[in-house]
Amino acid sequence: MPNQAKTVSQTKVELAQVAMPGDANPAGNIHGGTIMKLIDNAAGVVAMRHTGRNIVTASIDRLDFHYPVYVGNLIILKASINRVGKTSMEIGVRVEAEDVMTGEVRHTASAYLTFVALDDKGCPIGVPELICETDEEKRRRAEAIERYEHRKMQRR
Fold first, then answer.
1. CA 8, CA 83: separation in Å to the nearest integer?
2. What per-residue confidence (pLDDT) applies to 2?
3. Which of 107, 114, 147, 149 is least enclosed by beta carbons within 10 angstroms?
C-alpha cells in the first residue's frame, strides 16, 4: 500500500559488498565516486520501500569521508529514513569498512540524501507519513527538520 504510514524499521536497509580492485586507484583506495554510488543505491532502496513508488535523488547533503576504504574491505551501508515532507524524504546513510581479516570496523563516510516520489507520469506525488518509534528515531527526525529548514533558507 503506497500511502500507508510506515515506521523507520519497516524500510531501513543494510547492504554490504566487497571492495574490488576495479573500484580503486593505484594506491588501493576505493574511489569516492564508487562510495557515492553505493550510498545513493542504499538510500534509494529505503525511499522506494517507504513510498512503494519510483523515486529520484533530489540532492545529497553533507557527504563526509572520514577514512579510506581499501580493496578487500567489506563495505557496509546502513540507510534509514529520517524525515518526510509532502513529496520528499531525507534518508541518512552510514558507511562502514570492515577488514574481514582482523574484524576491525571503521565508520568511513556519512551522507544525507533527499528523494522525491514520482507518480506514473513522472510528477512528484505525496509520500506516506513516517512513524518514529524510538527516541533515536525522533532525534534523527528533529535534526533532519533542522537541516531541511537550513536548506530552505539557503535557497532564498
1. 10
2. 55
3. 149
CA dihedral angle for residue 100, residue 35, residue 112, residue 107, rounded to 10 degrees: 30
Q: 102 and 145 in contact (C-beta within 8 Å)?
A: no
CA distance 74 to 153: 38
Q: What does the pLDDT look like over 88-118, one tens digit per residue? A: 999 999 999 999 999 999 999 999 999 999 9
Burial category of 109 from C-beta neighbours within 10 Å (exposed 0-12, middle 13-18, buried 19 and up):
buried
| Cα 53 versus chain centre, distance | 17
pTM over 0.85: yes
Say how far apart CA 61 and CA 113 lie, in whole Å. Answer: 6
Classify domain 6-155 by CATH number.
3.10.129.10
Handedness of CA 128, 88, 107, 105 (dihedral sign): positive
